[in-house]
Design brief:
extended, 7 helices, 120 residues, mainly alpha, 0% strand
Length: 120
């Protein structure tokens, strides 16, 4: 849908102002194909221990990689062990090939989970 900028500004003056000033701006630094898992991960931040019951998924492992070759090894391994389906593995490979390693999110450095939980 396309709308004229002035028409939008007249119809939604406050929203237009917020968009122009970047108020409440949220940057997207990763893509998750599994919506249910993404929602689950987003909701765990309200607990006292944000990592309680957390099981790393394919993307968590991929984000630890330094190279695309390492990420492919992770995807191949998880598929071979039955941790992810062939279809999901293909989606991950396609994303890796087309958008690059960091499309899964910034690199998780050692101590990432401790820092996120506020232990360090």
């Amino acid at each position: 849908m396309e709308i004229d900028r002035e028409k939008f500004r007249r119809a939604f003056p406050h929203l237009a102002e917020e968009i122009e000033k970047g108020v409440q701006k949220i940057s997207i630094s990763a893509v998750r194909w599994d919506v249910e898992l993404g929602e689950q991960l987003a909701s765990t931040g309200t607990q006292r221990d944000p990592w309680a019951g957390y099981m790393p998924d394919a993307i968590a492992f991929i984000r630890r990689c330094d190279t695309e070759e390492q990420a492919l090894e992770i995807i191949d391994y998880l598929e071979r062990k039955g941790r992810i389906t062939h279809e999901y593995a293909e989606k991950l490979r396609r994303q890796l090939r087309e958008k690059g390693l960091r499309s899964f999110g910034p690199k998780k450095e050692p101590g990432y989970y401790f820092r996120q939980a506020g232990y360090v």
